[in-house]
Design brief:
Structural class: alpha+beta
Protein name: Serine/threonine-protein kinase RIO3
Keywords: ATP-binding, Kinase, Magnesium, Metal-binding, Nucleotide-binding, Serine/threonine-protein kinase, Transferase
GO molecular function: kinase activity
Bound molecules: adenosine-5'-diphosphate, manganese (II) ion
Helix content: 40-55%
Strand order of the largest sheet: 1-4-5-6-8-7-13
Largest sheet: 7 strands, mixed
Order of helices and strands: HEHEEHHHHEEEHHHHEEEEHEEHHHE
Strand content: 5-15%
Distance between the termini: 52 Å
Number of strands: 13
Shape: elongated
Cofactor: Mg(2+)
Organism: Apteryx mantelli (North Island brown kiwi)
Length: 477
């Protein structure tokens, strides 16, 4: 008999014995309605999640022990229960005692035979007896898929109500399916899987507080972040800032490897210099989110079209949504503009780059048709977590790269007026580098960076010429 068939039969049998009481929704959607921690079901699920996490922690320890100092290591990852990107739980790991081999565990309870009752005379107990039934449910939990860890309910003489048992059973099956799907298609994350439990809790809290009405789904899963769409709720601050009707939630991924190659942006950014060396990786990721918030605020103050910051919580940044009715505005690379609009977009970007440099003292550092949205007949800049000040040791190189992307995009797009990359660089920075070929031009850029760096060495920390951002508060539990 195939495993699949066996499972179906088991499910059928259980359904017959325990008519469905609750169906556990699997959807990725977080709404105000489905957050009810008062229900046994929710608590049971939370406990199960906690258990899965502990199981994974134990697995990681076993993996470590197994591999030892060996150069070749074997990963137990596919056996894990919790599959989000979360991998930096060391900070929150609690000591966990392995109780699976408890020598004092109670004997397994006797199960009721087919006839439906045991005992004689007045000592008869039927299968409907609450205690017996509860014990039986606990025992049956062991029949969930072998890889579904349920803990030592029998040892604790745990009595589960039918309702909770059914919910847990359903949860076990959906977890199993989820796990299978995930192993198949690790890349295709949906909203539910895209964030780790801690992030999900953060998002829950925002909805719970009424700040967000509903989180509808995922807009984008990138290497370093996941972006969700949400409908805004009401303000929870005293300053009564209005929350936009539609929001984008950028969740910076808490896996670290993706961020390693970004070190060069933040490490040399004097605004973060003092803090960088002392921080653990998790805090560094929060710093990316913080950086994006500060940069967006500067841009907002200079009147550059960009998302407006709503709130920052740890590595989660909520901002206004560029787009409408859950549909994000298209990236410049995806939208087909008329030649007139193309020209308009070009001049707008030239102007934005100048203002970004002069008024915000920022270089975007990842500017291209991928990070510009076309909305309301104009270009909006997004994705500024990596943006740096022009005095950053590599700031001018980043600017030159931005100029090359912009210049190439519009020249290819048929805008004959578009400056070439060197002209654009000079137009944005006013540095008037005279070199007429790329190699010399870049050499001069690097020389300028060097001069600037030497100046910093001699005169100490740079002082920002810009007034404080007037940033919204950063909330942290
Ligand atoms: P990354 O490229 O680092 O993954 P981005 O900030 O560029 O992160 O966001 C990824 C995608 O999410 C964008 O290309 C855009 O489609 C969408 N997006 C991000 N922020 C917003 C926003 N405020 N409004 C609408 N869509 C957004
Ligand atoms: Mn991007």
């Amino acid at each position: 008999m195939s495993e699949q068939l066996a499972k179906e039969l088991q499910l059928e049998e259980e359904n017959a014995a325990f008519p469905e009481v609750v169906a556990v929704a699997e959807g990725p959607f977080i709404t105000g309605e489905n957050i009810d921690t008062s229900s046994d079901l929710m608590l049971a699920q939370m406990l199960q999640m906690e258990f899965d996490r502990e199981y994974d922690a134990q697995l990681r320890r076993e993996e470590k022990k197994f591999n030892g100092d060996s150069k070749v290591s074997i990963s137990f990852e596919n056996y894990r229960k919790v599959h989000p990107f979360d991998s930096d739980s060391s900070e929150d790991e609690v000591d966990w005692q392995d109780t699976r081999h408890d020598p004092y565990r109670a004997d397994k309870p006797t199960t009721t035979p087919k006839k439906g009752f045991i005992g004689k005379g007045k000592d008869i107990t039927t299968k409907h007896d609450e205690v017996v039934c509860g014990r039986k449910n606990t025992a049956r939990m062991e029949n969930f898929a072998p890889e579904f860890q349920v803990g030592d309910g029998i040892g604790m003489d745990l009595k589960l109500s039918n309702q909770v048992f059914n919910a847990l059973k359903q949860h076990a099956y959906s977890e199993e399916r989820r796990s299978a799907r995930l192993h198949e298609k690790k890349e295709h994350s949906t909203a539910e899987k895209a964030v780790d439990p801690k992030t999900r809790l953060l998002l829950y809290k925002m909805v719970n507080a009424g700040m967000l009405e509903t989180i509808t789904g995922c807009i984008s899963t990138g290497k370093e972040s996941v972006v969700f769409h949400a409908y805004g709720g009401k303000s929870t601050n005293e300053d009564d800032k209005v929350i936009p009707p539609e929001c984008a939630i950028k969740v910076f991924k808490t896996t670290l490897n993706e961020f390693k190659n970004r070190d060069k942006y933040i490490k040399d950014d004097y605004r973060f210099k003092d803090r960088f060396s002392k921080l653990n990786p998790r805090k560094i990721i929060r710093m990316w989110a913080e950086k994006e918030m500060h940069n967006l605020t500067r841009m907002q103050n200079a009147g550059i079209p960009c998302p407006q910051v709503v709130i920052l919580k740890k590595h989660v940044l909520v901002m206004s949504f560029i787009g409408q009715d859950q549909v994000p505005a298209p990236k410049l690379k995806d939208v087909k503009l008329s030649s007139e609009d193309m020209k308009k977009a070009y001049y707008q970007i030239l102007n934005m780059m100048q203002r970004l440099y002069k008024e915000c003292s920022l270089v975007h550092a990842d500017l291209s048709e991928y990070n510009m949205l076309w909305h309301d007949g104009k270009v909006w800049l997004i994705d500024v977590s990596q943006s740096v000040e022009p005095t950053h040791p590599h700031g001018l190189e980043f600017l030159f790269r931005d100029c090359r992307n912009v210049s190439q995009f519009f020249q290819k797009g048929g805008v004959t007026e578009a400056l070439n990359e060197r002209e654009l660089f000079n137009a944005v920075s006013d540095l008037n580098i005279a070199a007429d070929n790329e190699v010399d031009f870049q050499a001069e850029i690097e020389a300028l960076e060097k001069v600037n760096e030497d100046h910093v060495q001699k005169h100490g920390k740079k002082v920002s010429a810009f007034p404080s951002d007037g940033d919204p508060p950063i909330y942290d539990e």
